[in-house]
Amino acid sequence: MRSPRIPGLVGATALLLCPVLAACAPEPQQLPAVMASPKDRKHTFDMSLPASPPPTPHAWPNGSRGRLIQSALLTSFKSLKQQPFPLMVAQFGDPLVTHRGALQLGAQATDKPSCDLWAKGLWSGTTLSRAGRTGLIGMASLLDIRDAPFIGTYAAQVIIHAPEKLLDELTHAPASECATITMSDNQNEWRVRLERSPVQVRGAGEVDAYRLVAEKGAEPTIWMARLRHGPYVMEVRFADSEVKEQTVAVPVMFQDLLDHSFARLRKKLP
User: Fold this and answer.
1) Residue-wise pLDDT tens digits, 40-77
2) d(CA 152, CA 200)
């Protein structure tokens, strides 16, 4: 059963809105055989009711590593509020990681799986449980719905605890082939550029932030940065769907979010 289509939303904007709509359900993601040009886009957002309820988050006991990571995740920041799912911490390979990850910023299908760590986020590198790939991942989604549920500012946070070798693997610099990536929302395709944009974070110094900038169309720019802290790495992703030209200056909201989230990370996970 499907709900009606909502005109006016497409591409990354549609995926950004999924956290607002509990009815958004991740579907198998495959790139269409034929690329759609911008003029061919229908500018619609197809919402699907979930076929089954999402997995239940694990209840971590007081004092456990999982509970500590959960305490470091953001529940609010300025006008951003936790929506619509509670904070969650899970082991690598838990089905809940894939379910929540599909609702993170920039979780679309791509034509280069080797670039998914940057296009989709850190969670995409933890979904397969195999030898030597163990750890915990905490995830939070925040959005601003003061004015309307379909327009505003969005953020996602991930905190990972894992062995140093794996953290190195998850935080390596993007390969040259990731300079341009084709993304898909199962209805349309568009190309984005992955651009480096260093930022200064209090307590961490200069950090390599990146932005995913659509070459054409109305998809908002997605900003991201990763910070290491002992056996942890934190990723923060941010987008403002109302701002279409965000290709020069680092958004003030993103900068403040990085400062605040890293300070909380250091306080809760010393």
Assistant:
1) 333 222 333 344 566 677 889 999 999 999 999 999 99
2) 25
Question: How buried is 218 (Cβ within 10 angstroms: 0-12 exposed, 13-18 middle, 19+ buried)?
Answer: middle
181: Cβ–Cβ under 8 A, 6 or more apart, which residues?
A: 110, 111, 112, 115, 118, 119, 191, 192, 194, 212
Prediction pTM value: 0.79
Contacts of 207 (CB under 8 A, 6+ apart): 198, 199, 200, 201, 225, 226, 227, 258
Q: What is the dihedral sign for C-alpha 18, 23, 29, 31?
A: negative
CATH fold of 6-268 reads: Protein Transport Mog1p; Chain A (3.40.1000)
Measure Cα distances from 190 to 12, 125, 145, 218 in Å. 9, 23, 27, 10
Q: If 0-12 CB within 10 Å is exposed, 13-18 middle and 19+ buried, where does residue 91 land?
A: middle
